[in-house]
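Below: protein 1.
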Amino acid sequence: MNKMMKYIKGFLINLQFFTAIPITFELPMEKEYLKKSVQTFPLLGLFQGIIYSFVLYILHEFTPFSHLAVAFMLWLTTIFLTGGLHLDGWIDASDAYFSFRDQEKRLEIMKDPRTGAFGVISIIILLSSRFLFIYEITSNIEFMFYILILLIPFFSKSVMGVLLLSVKSAKKSGLGYLFQNAAALRTLWIYPIYIIGSLFILSLFHQKIILVGILILAAAACLLFCQRKAVKWFGGITGDVLGAAVEGTELILWMTVWLLHYFVIV
C-alpha cells in the first residue's frame, strides 16, 4: 500500500507540474517520489489522451456543433490541458536553434524570457499544423481514431521519460535536471509493461490494433532523432528541450494518424 501511495503521489506531481489541473496541496519532492513521477509519465499521457478522446466523443455524438467547431474545441483542449508548458519549451528551443549560435549561447537564449521572431513563427506552424490534422482526422471519425488519439500523448510522454534518462543534462539546474537527478535509466523498466498492457487491452476492443504499431515506430523515430539532436544542438537536455521534444513528437504522431486516415483506415 505504501508503494502504491508513492506511485499515486508521483502521478499527482506530474499533474501539478505538467498540466493546468489545479493541485493545491503540497506534495513531497524527495527523490523517491520524483522517481515514481518519471515512472508514471506514460500514465500522465494516457490520462491526457483519455480526456482528448472523451471530449471528441461527447462533442461529436451529443452536440449540434459543426465539424469545424468540434475540431476547434478539441484543438483548444490539447493546448489548455497542459497549460502551455511544453509549448513554451517549443518556443524557447526554436528561438535558440534558429539563432545558429554555439551551444552555450543557445542555452542562454532559452533562459531569456523574451520571445523572438523564430519562436513566434515556429509556434504558429506547430499549432496550425495540429489544427489541420485534427480537423481532417475528425471529418470521418470511427472508433479506431479514438484509440489512436488516446495514445498520442501516451507515447509522447513515454518519449519524454526515455529522453530524460538517456541523454545527459545540458546544465546543472532547472526542472529537467531535477527529475533526471532523481532516477536512472533502469527506472524505465515499467514502460514496456505499460505499452504491452495497453496493446493487450485495446486489442480486445478493435481488430485494427496493429495500426498502433505504426504509432510506436513513429514515436521511436522521434526518440532517436531527439536523442541525437539534443546533444548536437544544445549539449544535452533541459526542461525546454524536453518540452520541445514532447510537442514535436505529438505533432509527428498527429500527422501519422492523419496519414492513416487517408491511406489505411478510410
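Below: protein 2.
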Amino acid sequence: MVRGLQLYIEGEQKYMVGRIPEAFELYRQAAVQILNHEDVLQKAGGNMVPEQSPQEILAIVWINLLGCFKSDDGRFTQEAYPEAYDLVYSFRPTSSSKAHPQFKGPQGQRLLKMMQILAGFALAILAWKKGDRSTTAKRYQEALDVAATHPPFNAVIPGQKHLDYVAARDVQEMRDNLAMLIAKDSFTAGMVGQGALRKEVLDVPNARLGVNGELTPDNTFVVATDACGRAGCSKRGVKFKRCSACKKTAYCSVECQKEDWKKHKLTHK
C-alpha cells in the first residue's frame, strides 16, 4: 500500500473513534506525502468510490483536511495548526500553477484547480470565523474566478460525478454565500444612506451570524464588497476598479465609469 493512502486510512480510523485532532494531522501528513513523493493523480482502487466523491486519493485527503478547518469545531484555526494552514494557503486560488509543478497535463491541472477552489472555500470560512467579512468575500470571489476557467466546475448540472460533482457543489455554495454577503452590504449601507466601500466600517447596529447559526450583536458593520459609484447602478462586488484620481470611488465596469465621469470629475476639485 502506498504511504499516502496508508496515512489517510489511519486518519479515518482516528476520526471514527473521535480522535479528530490526530486524524487531522494524519490527513495533513498524507497530503504532504502524496504531493512530495507520489503520483498526485493516483486513484482509489476498484469501482467502490461513490459518484459523490472524487476518485483521486489526494482529492479525498484534501476534502477531509479542509473539512476540519471548515467545521464548527473551534480547535482548527491558523494559530493552532500553522503547518496545515500554510499547506492550504499555498493552494489559495491566486497561487501560480508554477508553484505546483507536480500537477502535469490536463488531468493534473484539473485536479489542481479543484484543490485551489476548495482551499479558497476553507480560507473564506476561516476568515468568516474571525469576523473578517471583506476577506471572506475576497476568497469566495477568487475561488469562483478559478471555477470560471473550467466549465464543469462552474455550475451544478445533472449527471456530474466525482471531481466535477464535488467542485461544482462547493462552487454553488460559495456563489450563494457571496450573494448573501452582497445582499447584507446593500441593506446595511442603505440604512445609512451611502454606497459604502469594501472594508469601510459603518456605525450601525448589527447582528453577526456565526458559523453554527448563533447571532452575536455588534455596534459596527464592516462592508465586504464595493458599491458601484455610478448613480442608478446597484451592483456590488469584490474586484471593482477604483478611480485612479481619488482612489475612493469604485466602478463595476469601464462603461459605468465613463458614464459617471462628467459628474464624478467635479468631486476632484
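DSSP finds nine helices and eight strands in the chain.
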